[in-house]
Design the sequence.
């Protein structure tokens, strides 16, 4: 099981019941990033998720839990 700081979980609203903490493979996969200091996760598909936002032609993940998973585990 993936572990994320409880403060980050408490501050994040999730309509998917934090599936990314329970399932492998993760609900939303990393497509690309901009280095380690500024993590930008691009969702691979148009997922029905409050954190999946349009940014030009990209679908960008704004979920703090998902960002922390990437920072800690690189996935």
Sequence:
């Amino acid at each position: 099981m993936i572990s994320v700081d409880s403060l980050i979980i408490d501050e994040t609203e999730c309509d998917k019941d934090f599936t990314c903490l329970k399932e492998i493979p993760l609900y939303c996969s990393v497509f690309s990033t901009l280095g380690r200091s500024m993590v930008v996760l691009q969702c691979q598909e148009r997922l029905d998720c409050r954190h999946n936002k349009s940014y030009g032609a990209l679908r960008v993940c704004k979920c703090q839990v998902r960002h922390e998973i990437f920072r800690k585990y690189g996935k």
User: Anything to note?
Assistant: The chain has a mean pLDDT of 80. Residues 6-73 form one domain.
